[in-house]
Every structure is written in structure tokens, then in C-alpha cells.
């Protein structure tokens, strides 16, 4: 589905594009008519909702810009049909928000070399195809600082989608934040093998609560886990967007996406005639990822800890996966004085110290 780029990156070896593609000629803003294809409905409250919020942010940044979107476009041949329809209807730029759209993006882009295509989370590029994603692990780390500070039982549950590098990287970053704030805390993982399944999400959340967790984290697309936390009276860290409406008294914060940063910047480049194919992977510094507002129970001391750690990342020279970092067995995977490369982060397939759970094969 939409985030399997990292799974295939592990197989093929992810390398950021270094080809010297030429810039495209400028296009007047009123003639761009950007078109979007979404993997899910904008009412999902999570992943697609935040992409559409980004689309609206983009429109607001350019008076006269009008865009269109198509919801629930499957990762199959129908994606090509929808993109061709957008092009025939006047879209000079097409955005596809799911990894499984990738090959169809390349297929349609080959037919329309004068049209610009941007693909979320993929790794294939062409003269008129670029990719974009965000360093969500940075926001995950900051949210882990909050979770680690708020647990009383030192047991934090984590509802996890699929055992692929993106999700594993997020769990690890979250756990590093948890252990920075509270070295005695552990993060227990339950896999649900789905991106969006409210029933499974809530069931997993309840199982973690029954196992002793007094704070929950999550990598899933709905508000089911936060609802379970609210009902049980325990704290929760949401995901994708501010999920405090699902847990009005127990929501601590959430790592959130600001897709509009990429959408706005892409349109600006198109208007200025500076757009060229590249692979975009940006984070806190650029505003691509961030934290939702803190819940009322988060102490000022915890807020300060988060701001201090955020400042370290923003200053450069240090990031979440700088060593020393140990795996579950206590073996040093990232020695002190070194840092994981982007390729290593994008293919991560091991848990850090403090995670309780297995990575299914």
C-alpha cells in the first residue's frame, strides 16, 4: 500500500537520485490545474485527510490556483486511467499519494513528457517524475519523549501496522525518545497487518492496555486506538494529525504530516520554471513533519524537554539515529560518533533496545 516504498527499498537498495535533470519551463499559476489521486477517502481522518489538507494549503498560497482530486484510487491499472483523465482535463502537474501508484505514474508520465508528476514515497524517477516523503522519525522521537515522561508503569503500548522499515523506523525513533526521557520504560508492540482497520486497531489497543500499558503509541490511520485509550482512562500519542477529538482528555500529542509544504513548494518551482526531477525527503527543519499541540496534562518540564531536543535536530549536526544505538539484544548497531545513513534508515529491519516484540518475517 501507500508506504511500501521502504520495503522495496530494502530489496533494491534505495539511492537518492543524482541525475542532472533539466528544469522545466515555467507555467502560469492559472494554467497549472494540479490534479491529485488519493489512495483513500478524504474523510479517513488520517493519511488521506492530511494530504487533502495539504492540497488546500497549496491553493491558499497561490491566488487563482484551482486543483482537483480523485478519492480512493486503487493501486492498479485504474490509477493510470485516472491520471490520464486528469491530464486530458488540463492538469499540468499530477500528484499521486500512494506507493502502489508508482509504476502507473511512470507509465503515464512516459506518454506525457510535458506533464510533471510527483509521487509520494516512491523511489523511481524520470525526467518528468519526482518523489517526495518526510522524515517522520524526527517527530516520532519527540513524541516518544512525551510518552516516556508520562508513563507511571513504565509500559507503553504501540499499535503497529505492518513490519516494514518505515514502521520499524518509527517504533525505534519513538522508543529512543521514550528511553531518553525514562530509561526504565519499555515499548510493547502489537502488529495488526493493516493500515486502516478500526476494529483491529481498537482490539490491539485494548490488548496492550490489558497487558499493563498506561500510554499508547500508534502507526495506523484511524482514531480507534485513541478512542480505546480514552475509554480506558490512559494516555495516548496519536498519528497523522491531531487526534485529540478522539481522546479529548487523554491525548498527549501526535506526530503529524504537513504535506502542503511539498505541494506549495512544487507549485512555486513550476511557476518559476525551476522544477526538475528530484527525490525529496525533508523533516522538521522544513516543516514537513511536526507535533500536534500538547494535551492539558503535559507538564511544562516535558514541553521544555521536547523543545530542547527539537532544537538539537533543527540546529543540525545531530539526528535521532546518531550513535551509540543498541539493538534489542544490547549489541551496538550504531557506534558513538557515527550516524545512520539515509539508506540505512530507509531499510531498517531491527528493533532498538527497549522494544518488546518481534519483527515477523
Q: If you had to describe this structure to a student in words, what would you say it looks like?
A:
With about 350 residues, the protein is of the alpha/beta class. It has 2 domains: about 160 residues, Rossmann fold, CATH 3.40.50; about 180 residues, Response regulator (Rossmann fold). About 35% of the residues lie in helices and about 15% in strands. It has 11 helices and 16 strands. The strands form 4 sheets. A 6-stranded parallel sheet has the order 2-1-3-4-5-12. Helix 3 packs parallel to helix 4 and helix 7 packs parallel to helix 8. Keywords: Signal. It comes from Aminivibrio pyruvatiphilus. One of its GO terms (cellular component) is plasma membrane.
Name of the top-level CATH class of the largest domain: Alpha Beta
What does the overall shape look like? globular
**Counting H and I runs of at least 4 residues, what is the number of helices?**
11
CATH topology of the largest domain: Rossmann fold
Radius of gyration: 20 Å
Relative helix content: 25-40%
- Number of domains in the coordinates? 2
GO cellular component, one term: plasma membrane
Pfam family, one: Bmp
Keywords: Signal
Protein name: Nucleoside-binding protein
Amino acid at each position: 500500500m501507500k508506504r511500501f516504498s521502504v520495503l522495496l527499498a530494502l530489496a533494491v537498495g534505495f539511492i537518492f537520485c543524482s541525475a542532472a535533470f533539466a528544469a522545466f519551463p515555467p507555467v502560469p499559476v492559472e494554467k497549472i490545474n494540479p490534479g491529485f489521486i488519493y489512495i483513500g477517502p478524504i474523510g479517513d481522518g488520517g493519511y488521506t485527510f492530511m494530504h487533502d489538507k495539504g492540497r488546500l494549503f497549496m491553493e491558499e498560497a497561490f491566488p487563482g490556483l484551482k486543483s482537483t482530486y480523485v478519492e480512493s484510487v486503487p493501486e492498479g491499472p485504474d490509477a493510470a486511467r485516472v491520471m490520464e483523465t486528469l491530464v486530458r482535463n488540463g492538469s499540468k502537474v499530477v500528484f499521486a499519494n500512494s506507493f502502489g501508484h508508482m509504476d502507473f505514474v511512470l507509465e503515464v508520465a512516459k506518454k506525457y513528457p510535458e506533464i510533471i508528476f510527483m509521487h509520494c514515497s516512491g523511489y523511481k524517477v524520470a525526467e518528468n517524475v519526482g518523489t517526495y516523503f518526510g522524515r517522520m522519525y524526527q517527530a516520532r522521537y519527540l513524541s516518544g519523549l512525551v510518552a516516556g515522561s508520562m508513563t507511571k508503569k513504565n509500559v507503553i503500548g504501540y499499535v503497529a501496522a505492518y513490519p516494514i522499515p518505515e514502521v520499524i523506523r518509527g517504533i525505534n525513533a519513538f522508543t529512543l525518545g521514550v528511553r531518553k526521557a525514562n530509561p526504565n520504560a519499555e515499548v510493547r508492540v502489537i502488529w495488526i497487518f493493516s493500515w486502516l482497520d478500526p476494529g483491529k486497531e481498537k482490539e490491539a489497543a485494548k490488548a496492550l492496555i490489558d497487558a499493563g500499558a498506561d500510554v499508547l503509541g500508534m502507526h495506523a490511520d484511524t482514531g480507534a486506538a485513541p478512542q480505546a485509550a480514552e475509554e480506558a482512562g490512559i494516555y495516548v500519542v496519536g498519528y497523522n494529525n491531531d487526534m485529540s477529538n478522539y481522546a479529548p482528555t487523554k491525548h498527549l500529542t501526535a506526530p503529524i504530516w504537513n504535506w502542503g509544504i511539498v505541494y506549495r513548494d512544487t507549485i512555486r518551482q513550476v511557476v518559476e520554471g525551476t522544477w526538475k526531477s528530484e527525490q525529496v525527503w525533508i523533516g522538521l527543519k522544513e516543516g514537513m513533519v511536526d507535533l500536534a499541540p500538547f494535551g492539558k496534562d503535559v507538564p511544562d518540564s516535558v514541553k521544555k524537554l521536547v523543545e530542547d531536543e527539537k532544537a538539537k535536530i533543527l540546529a543540525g549536526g545531530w539526528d535521532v539515529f546518531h550513535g551509540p544505538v543498541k539493538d534489542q539484544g544490547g549489541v551496538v548497531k550504531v557506534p558513538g560518533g557515527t550516524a545512520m545513513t539515509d539508506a540505512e534508515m530507509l531499510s531498517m529491519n531491527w528493533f532498538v533496545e527497549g522494544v518488546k516484540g518481534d519483527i515477523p518475517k
